[in-house]
Structures are given as C-alpha cells and as structure tokens.
Amino acid sequence: MIAGLSFRVRHLWTDARGVAATEFAIIVPFMLVLYVGGVELGNGLAMKVKVSATAHSVGDMVSQNTQVSPARMQAILGAAKAIMAPYPVTGSNGTSLITITVSEVSTDSSGNATVQWSQSTSSNGARPINQPMTLSSFTAPDPKNPNNANISLILSEVSYDYTPNLGYTISGTVKMTDSYYLFPRCSTNSPANSSFPYYDVKYTPTSTTCTCVQHLQLKTC
C-alpha cells in the first residue's frame, strides 16, 4: 500500500496534463486587455489626427478671406465637421461631440493681444470680445517687430469628446483638443503709427468682399 501511494505521489508530481490549459487561463485576461487597449489606442490616435486636421483646415479657410459674414462663417464651421468622418460628430442622445471655435486675436502697439471677434459651433464656445490673450510660444516675433505689435492672427480651436467603446469604465470620456494660430493672407489696412503691414479678417454682418488677391485661390474678389 505504501509503495502504491508513493507511486501515485510521484506520478502526480510529474503529470504535465492540463498545464497548457492552466497557462492559457492565466494569460487570456492579459491578452484581452492588450487587444482591447490596442483597438482603443488606435481609434484614439486616428481621432486625434482628425481633430488636428479640422483645426488647421478651419483656420486656413478663414485666413484666406479679408471679410466674412455670419452666414459664410457658419458654412465653414458646419463643413469642417465633415473632416471628422467616418467618426461621429453627435452622440447617441443627439448632443454634439465636437466644438469648433474661430477667433481673431489682434495686438496693439505694445503687443498686448485681445480677441476682436469669435464664432463657435457651441452656444457658449465663443470667446468674449476684448478677452486678453497670451500668444502661443510658437508665434515667433518678427525681428523687426520683437513684441508682435499691431498684428492679427486667426485662432482655430477644436475639441472632441471621445468615448471608448470598450474601455469607458476605465477612462471615461476623453476630451481631445488642438489649436492653431495662422496669419491672415491679405493685407487689408495699416493702423496709424504702424510701420508694419497689418493683416486681419473683418467679421461683418453681410459683406464678404475683399480688396486683395487671395493667394491660394489665385483670384481677386
């Protein structure tokens, strides 16, 4: 009996049956996490690229004008949402997932920047008029204009609420944002006491005429 029991113990100790199944059961949760995380990370990176493309495209379109009307501005903002395709721009409850805001930021003779006008796809997304602004560090001053005096810039801002399909309980909703400062393309006027060309985009009730060549479109309007 003792010999038989000893044999059984040795047999159990060397038995390799079921090892693969045990290892598989241990590894599966980690593999699923890696797979789900890879899918969500890929979607997130692709959406971030779309957000950046939207911000740049909106600023680029606005900066090609010397004057924009509310109707034209809303058309530009509405069309820009299509850049996010194939990703949704509205949630299941009908709320907008994307907010696009375009503002003109101008500086005075001392280089102090303030908002001249602002429009947004959100009812509360527009920046207040005359709001003080700090220019981006990427907006390098001209050597002849070291404090960025008497300039105007188009500021395009985009935010997108990304809700992971599989990882919502872990990360919740992730807000992706990007912004661009772009110089207007057309010289429209030169303020008094300024020796620098002054570029801006006027926001007017109805007029959308301009007085210079729009360089990318190669036409005078």
Number of discrete domains? 1
Radius of gyration: 29 Å
| Oligomer status | single chain
The fraction of residues in strands falls at: 15-25%
Mean pLDDT: 79
Number of helices: 4
What fraction, in percent, of the residue positions are helical?
A: 25-40%
Task: Describe this entry's structure for a reader.
By secondary structure, the protein is an alpha+beta fold. The protein has one domain (19-220). Helix content is 33%, strand content 24%. It is built from 4 helices and 11 strands. The chain has helices spanning 2-14, 19-63, 70-80, 168-171; strands at residues 67-68, 98-107, 113-120, 132-133, 152-162, 174-182, 187-189, 198-199, 202-203, 213-214, 219-220. The strands form 4 sheets. Strands 4-3-2-5-6 form a 5-stranded antiparallel beta sheet. A two-stranded parallel sheet has the order 1-9. It has a two-stranded antiparallel sheet with strand order 7-8. A hairpin with a 4-residue loop joins strand 10 (213-214) and strand 11. Helix 2 (19-63) packs antiparallel against helix 3. The longest helix has 45 residues, at 19-63. The chain starts with a helix and ends with a strand.
